[in-house]
Write a structure and sequence with these properties.
The chain is α+β, with helices and mostly antiparallel strands. It contains 26 helices and 21 strands. The strands form 5 sheets. Strands 8, 9, 10, 11, 12, 13 and 14 form a 7-stranded mixed sheet that branches. A 5-stranded antiparallel sheet has the order 4-3-7-6-5. Helix 3 (60-89) runs antiparallel to helix 5. The protein binds adenosine-5'-diphosphate (ADP). Residues 480-481, 484, 512, 514-517, 525, 531-533, 537, 542-548, 571 line the site of adenosine-5'-diphosphate.
């Protein structure tokens, strides 16, 4: 009998060790309850083992030793179980403090309970047994056990009453059951002893069953915990996307609800399929490098386009177990992309049409202005009648304003459509500033304003940047300053700072003593078509585009623009632009140069070249007349042609030094004519520089023309000075005789 009892209790120990081990394998560090339950299982197993060993002892002292060890586990288990019950019940406050605090009294009790004199051992039919000697310690121990059980029962009842969730109530019932089972065992063991019966190891048996009940509770509780294992199942069945699991042999094993709905088949029917039965894919879809493959394929059954992601699943040894295939229906997206593509094509076409329209408009408007300005310039050059000169001066001002307006609108539409690019080239800052001063000088003088340029002489002169755009920015701000200043001065202050060895940050500060801008309007200054201080400026011409263009150009060049202004006193516009400095040349003094400009001639050309031969090609007779007029004083020999084919005939007959070739001509246009000339074997003007004349002033066209093979570009309306400057550059040096004016321009 005693061996039977020992064997039984020994097996309890083994089972609880196995339970403990199973928790250990899952990784007990994950959760507090895992740690507590693992400890409880170990203590329960220790209890069973020690008490089993007591049973088979014949020597009382050895039995006492086993018993003492067993008691250690008993107290430990009581503490653990109390903690577990408190943890699950989520009890708070006094009840928790009391229950947990009380159970730890066992630590004090334990040394007294194992004293040999407090126990009597005797041999019974089921082996070595013992009972407590009645006294303080036996009563204390019994009271401790009873109070601990009552405490735990109270906590479980608290949980039962308080919990709203059904799963908590199930846990509470399990705890109550566990307490009952243990109490029943203890009743057999402890209380029977007090009644004078030999101790039956009921407590040991009871705690084992209690431990098993707790294990079930623990498993149940774990099932409702948010863990990867638990949730993956929920996720798998609840995701709408079809999910297919294929085994190593590429057979479909598991499908989720999404997949059955997607294929409109039962899970059983789905399982008979291969990936290639579902999608337009060959068998190689599973053969890929790496862990993931994403393919797009049409589903046979539904005829929709799917994005299929295939992931390999590996075992612990990194061998493939199977594949997880997740399907996204992208039909809508693909269709939308196709639609967007078509829309984009349409928009691109419309944009192209807009650009063509703008280029044409630019041409159409500039051609008559060209004629007006050209003819007007001839009047200005040739007339001596003061009244006529005044009228012609007015015409010149008005046509210049019109030209600026057209350019602004064209530039703006170009910027808006993102077609404006910064075209870098090496330029002279000094040259640019001189040109700027020339352009603003007359207007400032007319208004009685002092135009002051303050440029440090050591400012680097040769810069790499987009000269045209830098000039446009400063010119816009300078003309505004002149426009909105009635008396006083306009000052352009240039300064620079070296950012890197070859990069300088140029600062152009334009200060005026004009009408100023109200503080509340400063924020709106750079908005397109917005004119601020309406009351003050409505009599002054303007479109509200200038500053908006400045702002965008500055941003395009990674610079900045700032405004400071006091209403009624004046404004300062400060532009900062990073530019690359090329070489060591500095700007030097601008002053003496300007003096010479003041005496800009009316009748003296920059050069004379009686031996030079120029061919001017334009379908518009007025333009040819303008060219002739502008070049009359240079004594250059000018031949005219009114079409591309006429031009080809001319170059076959004569050797020209420079050809001025209009772009937009009926029949053969300028570009075709140039190509024709290049292809001609008998072209006698092969060496001639070909300069395209065009009214197409859209930004970026210059580069386009250079790419097409032209040597240079001259925008209409042609200005006499510009034309002369260009010719001086391209005519053979030996045929050119530079005048004093030309020297100062150089
Ligand atoms: P606009 O063609 O009207 O000059 P801008 O974009 O160049 O267009 O300028 C926008 C507005 O900013 C102008 O209408 C004017 O009210 C104000 N403004 C610009 N520059 C100055 C300045 N130097 N002094 C006072 N007001 C200015």
């Amino acid at each position: 009998m005693k061996y039977f009892m020992f064997f039984l209790i020994y097996n309890f120990a083994v089972i609880t060790y196995i339970i403990g081990y199973s928790i250990l394998r899952k990784g007990i560090r994950e959760n507090r309850i895992d740690r507590i339950y693992f400890t409880a299982a170990m203590l329960s197993a220790g209890w069973s083992l020690c008490m089993g060993l007591v049973l088979i002892q014949t020597d009382q002292d050895k039995a006492a030793l086993m018993r003492a060890l067993g008691m250690f586990h008993i107290f430990g288990l009581l503490i653990c179980n109390t903690h577990m019950v408190v943890y699950w019940s989520n009890v708070r406050g006094r009840l928790k403090q009391w229950t947990v605090g009380f159970i730890w009294l066992g630590v004090i009790l334990f040394p007294f309970m194992i004293q040999r004199r407090n126990m009597i051992f005797e041999m019974t039919t089921y082996g070595m047994s013992y009972r407590f000697v009645f006294g303080v310690w036996s009563v204390a121990y019994t009271a401790y056990c009873v109070i601990a059980a009552v405490n735990m029962a109270c906590v479980a009842i608290y949980m039962l009453r308080r919990s709203i969730r059904r799963r908590d109530r199930v846990v509470a019932y399990s705890l109550l059951l566990c307490i009952c089972v243990v109490c029943f065992g203890c009743a057999l063991d402890t209380i029977m002893q007090m009644a004078g019966f030999a101790a039956f190891p009921g407590c040991t048996i009871g705690q084992f069953f209690g431990c098993v009940v707790l294990y079930r509770t623990y498993l149940f509780h774990n099932r409702t915990r948010m863990t990867l294992e638990n949730m993956s199942e929920f996720v798998y069945y609840s995701v709408d996307e079809p999910v297919f699991l294929f085994d190593e042999a590429e057979r479909l094993c598991i499908v989720n609800n999404g997949a059955t709905l997607f294929l409109d088949m039962s899970a059983e029917e789905c399982r008979k399929m291969q990936l290639s039965d579902i999608f337009e894919l060959d068998h190689n879809a599973f053969r890929f490098r790496g862990n993931k493959n994403r393919v797009e394929a049409r589903c046979w059954k539904r005829n929709n386009i799917c994005s299929i992601s295939i992931d390999k699943i590996y075992d612990d040894y990194k061998d493939i177990i199977g594949y997880i295939v997740i399907v996204h229906d992208v039909t809508e997206r693909v269709r939308m992309l196709e639609r967007v593509g078509r829309e984009k094509q349409r928009a691109d076409k419309a944009n192209e049409a807009k650009s063509v329209f703008l280029a044409n408009m630019s041409h159409e408007i500039r051609t008559p202005i060209n004629a007006v300005m050209g003819m007007n310039e001839m009047i200005l050059r040739e007339s001596d009648d003061a009244a006529v000169l005044e009228y012609a001066g007015n015409i010149q001002d008005a046509s210049k304003t019109l030209l600026v307006l057209i350019n602004d609108i064209l530039d703006f539409s170009k910027i808006e459509s993102g077609m404006l690019e910064v075209v870098e080239g090496v330029y002279s800052l000094k040259g640019m500033l001189k040109a700027l001063r020339m352009e603003c000088h007359m207007r400032a003088e007319d208004k009685g304003l002092a135009l002051i340029f303050e440029v440090p002489e050591d400012t680097p002169d040769r810069l790499l940047g987009d000269e045209v755009r830098v000039r446009q920015i400063i010119l816009n701000i300078l003309t505004n300053a002149v426009k909105y200043t009635m008396k006083g001065s306009v000052t352009l202050k240039v300064s620079y700072q070296r950012v890197k060895e070859d990069v300088v940050e140029l600062t152009f500060a334009v200060k005026d003593t004009g009408i100023g801008i109200k503080e509340e309007n400063i924020g709106r200054l750079f908005d397109k078509f917005d004119r601020v201080n309406e009351e003050e400026v409505h009599t002054i011409e303007g479109s509200g585009l200038g500053l908006s263009i400045v702002d965008r150009l500055v941003k395009l060049m990674h610079g900045s623009v700032e405004v400071e202004s006091v209403f009624g006193e004046g404004s300062t516009f400060t532009v900062r632009l990073p530019q690359k400095a090329v070489g060591m040349e500095t700007v030097g003094s601008l002053e003496e140069e300007s003096v010479r400009h003041e005496g800009h001639r009316k009748n003296t050309p920059m050069f004379t070249a009686p031996d030079a031969k120029i061919l001017a090609v334009d379908d518009n007779k007025v333009n040819l007349t303008v060219i002739r007029g502008l070049l009359r004083k240079t004594k250059v020999q000018v031949t005219f042609a009114q079409s591309g084919s006429e031009c080809l005939e001319c170059v076959a007959k004569e050797r020209y030094d420079v050809i001025l070739l209009d772009h937009m001509m009926p029949g053969m246009d300028g570009i075709e004519t140039l190509a024709g000339m290049k292809a001609m074997p008998d072209n006698r003007s092969r060496e001639a520089a070909v300069i395209v004349l065009t009214a197409n002033a859209m930004a970026g066209v210059r580069e386009m023309y250079l790419e097409k093979g032209f040597d240079d570009y001259l925008a209409k309306p042609i200005e006499g000075t510009m034309l002369e400057q260009l010719l001086m550059r391209y005519l053979p040096a030996e045929s050119v005789c530079v005048t004093d004016v030309g020297k100062s321009e150089d």
